[in-house]
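Please check this:
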Amino acid sequence: MFSKYRTLRSALLSALEVKSRLPELEKSTRDVNLRVRNLEFCLDAMIGDPKFNPATHWAFNGQLGRQALFRRLLEMFSFDLVLETGTFLGETTGYFASTMAIPVHTCELNHRFHAVAKLRLDNYPGIHFFQGDSRNFLKQVSQGGNAGKFPFIYLDAHWYDDLPLCEELEIIDGAWNQYIVMVDDFKVPFDLGYTYDDYGPGKCLNAGLISTASTERTLSIFYPSLPSQDEVGSLRGCAVIASDPVICQRLDQENILRR
């Protein structure tokens, strides 16, 4: 009888131990799945498209409406620099470099994505690659001699536990008087056909998160006016952000954007 009791007690303690470790085990499983998925992304890119092809690019998630929005911003403003956080495999990076004759600085935290993107874009000398944290990247560029006076900045470095968006915006608004930021994976409040990143309480890419950024100037948020049903590609939402009143006034006059 005591032997059965000890066996039952041991089994119960083991079950309780496993239950207490479930969050840790779930995180480990998620991390492994992400690693496998990331390796598959790298392998698929190097097998299918070992070199970036401007004719078949997948820039801005393959969203033609977003590409048209970007081209309209190019027509409206005289950018002298492009900054990108979240290089991934270099599709949008290559699009920037093949569309504009200005320097492109891009940052990627994942060393494999960084290496693959450099290989795929090694025939574009105007691209400057940075491997590391996006906040360090923005600080380094803003304090260097090639910071530019009016950058276009594409923020796409948010991922699960690391959500640097507010800190990125604080650095940007403190470093440049004029800029336009485009944030990928952002919630479009009047069109939920566009998907967005939501990692739990306080970690949703939406206007509420932006309101917590500690910037001296007020940040104005604009959204694509193109209905998601008329877009193609991955249908990810985005936001265009600026703080300069003159820039915001010009953006207000465009029918491709709305507050």
Q: What stands out?
A: The chain has nine helices and eight strands. The domain at 59-258 is CATH 3.40.50.150 (Rossmann fold). The mean pLDDT is 91. The chain has two domains: 2-48, 59-258.
